[in-house]
Every structure is written in C-alpha cells, then in structure tokens.
Design brief:
single chain; about 70 residues; mainly alpha; CopG family transcriptional regulator; Ribbon_hlx_hlx; Arc_rbn_hlx_hlx
C-alpha cells in the first residue's frame, strides 16, 4: 500500500485523535483518514451521478482511466 504524507492544522489533528484508539471508532490515524477519504469520494460520486458526470468517467471518455493503465 502506498504511503502519503499530509499536513493539517493541529486543531484538526486533535479532533481526529479524539476518534482514534481503544475508546475511539478507529484503530489508528491511517484507518481514520482512509475511512474519511472513502466517505468523501462516495459523496462526490453521488454528486457527479446527480449531475450526469459519473457515466462519462466510468466509460473512460475523459481519458483519465486510459492514462493510468
């Protein structure tokens, strides 16, 4: 799995840490960030679908999928 580095304000990190650990919803920060990114991407996909943009991306018409293969 690729690693990334992210800078964020201390206040945001402190809020994130409240949800991480034995009493939290997430095992570690990475788990929390992955879950947040997945949720955000799901919401963006729903928005794109409502605006008719998702079908174009899935068919590869925008060229993004072809460039990554």
């Amino acid at each position: 799995m690729p690693k990334i580095s992210v800078e964020m304000p201390g206040e945001l990190l402190a809020d994130l840490d409240e949800h991480v650990g034995d009493d939290g919803k997430f095992v570690n920060r990475s788990d929390a960030v992955r879950a947040s990114v997945r949720k955000t991407l799901d919401v963006l996909d729903e928005i794109d679908a409502r605006h008719g943009r998702l079908a174009e991306e899935e068919s590869g018409e925008n060229g993004a999928e072809e460039a990554t293969e």
